[in-house]
Design a protein that fits this description.
Blueprint: E1 3-4, H1 5-21, H2 23-33, H3 38-53, H4 62-76, H5 81-96, E2 101-102, H6 104-122, H7 132-147, H8 152-168, H9 193-215
Antiparallel strand pairs: 1-2
Helix pairs in contact: 1-3, 1-4, 1-9, 2-3, 2-9, 3-4, 4-5, 5-6, 6-7, 6-8, 7-8, 7-9, 8-9
The structure holds adenosine-5'-diphosphate and magnesium ion.
Length: 216
Amino acid sequence: MTLDSTWVRAWIERTAEVLTTERHTLSELDRQIGDGDHGENLARGFAAVRERIGQTPDDATPATLVKLVATTLISTVGGAAGPLLGTAYLKGAAALGDASELDARAVVALLTAARDGVVLRGKAETGDKTMVDAWTPAVDAAAAAAGSGAPPADVLRAAADAAAEGAAATEPLVARKGRASYLGDRAIGHRDPGAQSSSLIITAAADTAAGSNKES
Ligand code: ADP
Ligand code: MG
């Protein structure tokens, strides 16, 4: 099974669908500990991404497509999440280079670069109750899976499962970055919206990779 540019397109398409479906849930999470715009921000951003991806030539490489996600999110999404996720996709695109297919190591490189991009931009550490708390467990699980010889789709599934757990594990935390940090202890008991949306993005990657697996 190959994770090629067709897969990247499917991943982006699925991400746009899921973030549109989940926009109210994500904004509701953000209403609890932020300003309630997270779902709208991302749904709007990925609607723009979807439109622009549809205009790219058929032979666009995975990196070109991922970079287009980055520049679109940076230019269309207000708030913290646009630049943060934009930087994640930008660094992820750089890690892909000119490869036409991703093997397990490339998947780990993509996720690692994305996480490093979020950290570079936002300076959050693990446990600060941010999207980093989804990305870092995903990177660690992906590296472990790839290290034990798992194929790329299974590496993504391991990452997605860990991201979902990481997002859930933000609930008892106090936030140390972003708007939620103004709340102190009142953030306890609420899931971080950015960790949740990052988990959805990584799950969309795993779901579409599994789909292409069945077809091949
Ligand atoms: P805003 O907070 O500007 O309204 P969003 O609601 O779109 O932006 O995004 C909020 C999310 O951004 C938070 O749930 C958190 O995951 C993430 N976030 C905020 N600041 C940081 C940061 N410094 N590092 C990583 N993630 C952050
Ligand atoms: Mg917000």
